[in-house]
Amino acid sequence: MLDLRHRFPAITEGVHHGWARFDGPAGTQVIDSAIEATSAWQRSGNNANSHGSFAAAEACDALFEQVQGTIGRLLNVSPSSVMFGPSTTANVFSITRAIGHDLRPGDEIICTQLDHDSNVSPWLLVAEDTGATVRFAEFDAATGRLHPEAVTKLLTDRTRWVAVTGASNAIGTMPDITTITAAAHAAGAKVMVDGVHLTPHAPVDVTSIGCDVYSTSSYKWYGPHAGATWVEPVLLDQLHAYKVRPAPDTGPGRFMLGTPSYEGFAAIDAAAQFLLDTGMDVIQAHERQLFWRLLDGLLSDDRVTVYGPHDLVDRAPTLAFNVAGHSPESVARRLAAERIAVWDGHYYALEAMAALGIEGAVRAGIAVYLTNDDVDRLLDVVHRI
Ligand SMILES: Cc1ncc(COP(=O)(O)O)c(C=O)c1O
Fold it and tell me: For ligand 1, what atom is nearest to the CA of residue 227?
């Protein structure tokens, strides 16, 4: 069995040592190499800024190119079109603001009920500003599946953008984004994929998905808090970027507002390299085994309702559940009392909660540092509630 726990200091030592951390969908613990990379960068004297005429400034440019290259390999995208910002939410707002400049009344945008609000609210706001209309693709609440037709049937000759998640951060469902993208392109629309919950859990090939924008956040895959977003190169230069005049007129610098976090780049690079070195297929296989133990154990308890798919097909190892007669918060507190961290509430998946007819649920997600023992501890507490 894959054993990477020794690579996570927060798991093996320190004040939270001994906790079973099922809170990865809200942010994972950090891999040792990313922690060390940040520290090494800040000790190195390379901390400067871009495009200067001395060695440290050149090191900043080299680091930026290096992290772009590593993200390029992780996602299979053109590295020079990868931009970075404080979060995916911030990056999506920057890009949708630019998209809004070219939207007209009557234009249509398709969002989905499965998406985290960071791929919903920016579109609702831009529609409000421009007179465009947002239409929602519905998922099947009984199975948790978002069928491609639920999206494609909403396409019209006025559809400009489709905003769809690669994986639900609430119930784990992975829609068929390749089919959705092909249909959207055939109808003349572009596609933004929220890859925040997909990237840590499955091999991702953005070029074969074919979408126009793909965003991921490194703090969901053992790195620092940051968003990394790829924008198709022609679109990247065409969009009406809201930027300061001296910022670059082409490339990702158009959307990177102010001086970026170079210490963050060092850590993002190390975390992405960790995923590449371990292999996303290896991570996926490891997580699936743990996840099945969790899902099966919860499904065996009559008082537990598990939302979303009850199998391993096309899903991230994340689930939401409730225990009859107990609020999500009380279940989360009960688990916390036994040093088990889960999330409770809606985790910004507002549309998904509404579609499921609930206000919130307990969420547990698998990460690479969890073990069978952690899963058994969680199940044991839930069964005893
Ligand atoms: C699926 C999904 N999309 C987007 C986001 C927002 O990411 P960020 O916090 O980087 O803005 C999250 C955060 O939880 C998420 O889970």
Answer: 10
The answer on pLDDT for 252 being more than 90 is: yes
pLDDT at 385 over 90: yes
Domain ranges of the chain: 5-32+280-384, 37-276
Q: Rounded to the nearest 5 degrees, what angle is found at the Cα of 51, between the Cα atoms of 48 and 55?
A: 55
CATH number for the domain formed by residue range(s) 5-32+280-384: 3.90.1150.10
* pTM: predicted TM-score of the whole model, two decimal places: 0.98
The long-range contacts involving 232-235, CB below 8 angstroms and separated by at least 24 positions, are 232/81, 233/78, 233/80, 233/81, 235/190
CATH of 37-276, one of 3.90.1150.10, 3.10.580.10, 3.40.640.10, 3.30.70.2860: 3.40.640.10
Is the Cβ–Cβ distance between 162 and 146 less than 8 Å?
no
Sheet containing 159-165: order of strands: 82-85, 227-231, 213-217, 190-194, 159-165, 108-112, 133-137
Output the CA torsion sign for 138, 177, 115, 241: negative
Rounded CA separation 212/189 (Å): 10
Report the nearest atom of ligand 1 relative to the CA of 26: 14
Ligand 1 lined by 194 (C-beta under 6 Å): yes
Whether 87 is in the pocket of ligand 1, judged by its Cβ within 6 Å, is yes
For the CA atoms of 213, 218, 219, 221, the dihedral, rounded to the nearest 10 degrees, stands at: 110
What is the reported pLDDT for 1? 77
CA-nearest residue, atom 14 of ligand 1: 26
